[in-house]
Give the backbone structure.
Amino acid sequence: MTMLHANAAAPGIAQEAARPLDYFDLLKPRVMSLVVFTAAVGMIGAYVQGGSLPIGLAIISLLAISIGAGASGALNMWWDADIDAVMERTATRPIPRGAVPGPEAAAFGLVLSALSVALLALSSNYLAAGLLAFTIFFYAVIYSMWLKRATPQNIVIGGAAGALPPVVAWAAVAGETPWQAWALFAIIFLWTPPHFWALALRRSSDYERVGVPMMPNVEGEAATRRQIFAYSLLLAAFAVAVQPFGLGGPLYLGVAILTGVHFVRLAYRLLRAPSGDAKSAMRLFGFSILYLFGLFAALLVEGLYALARQPHL
Amino acid sequence: MMREDEKKRRSQRNLAIAGGITAFIVLIYLVTLMRIGASVGAGG
């Protein structure tokens, strides 16, 4: 296993003037769209619970949260440019393909981080801004610079960064983070390991090549599958168990049960599949995206319905 | 000496930076207006 030097310049890169779209790519637009979606659900949840932020400020706050997420993506790409250049999945990112120089990406990420936190502080409150700053720090420094290359638990702990946006959004609208906000956090947190490890099973040779200690290439395929199954069980059970306490209504409960059962079934199939069966892993990976979308979409629909029935809105 | 396409990219980038700064200023202006509106509405 060869460990590349963190942030070493990728060899053979010809730097040329970048296009604006190359900078947009640095923000990881697909991750940003997931952040916007989960954060919007957090905001709706906060309004249902009596949050009072004017809607215009909520929209600007959502924009600030998405820019913050994009900024942390740019910092991650700057730090990981050396391994991105070697891995098949990431070789065409703006820095390894030579479109954006690394230091410019770092400056871009830092400036956007500062602006997003400042904007959120102005549009909502300091609690939300502080949480956003912590999220960016956690993703860029704790996950990217430290955990990712240090431990096979990298994405378990690092998953906290991806799970925080609905909490930040809830805080922006309500000025507090009640247990329901942390329940949304826990759902994404428990979802992250089975989601990423399913992909890592397929891409383990890529991670092996660059020396990133992902679970499959450190503890092996069988151990990874066992842990995927354990997390899937925990996730499906947790998503259902929180409903009676007040997260979501009957639609959410129905979606959580139906998709949860299927999620566990796919994880079990992967557990029992013959060694090297990439199809089962990719099936679980694909469904995991649908699963998270389904849960949050159900919460969004129920939240909007509840708001529409409130007379003062 | 910069090539034509490099010049074009640089000018696109300058325009994007100008657009970004303008958007940020407009956002701060809007936040200020909305905050004033909210506090006037609340009687404070």
Notes: The mean pLDDT of chain B is 88. The radius of gyration of chain B is 19 Å. Residues 15 and 35 of chain B are 30 Å apart (CA to CA). Chain B has one helix and no strands.
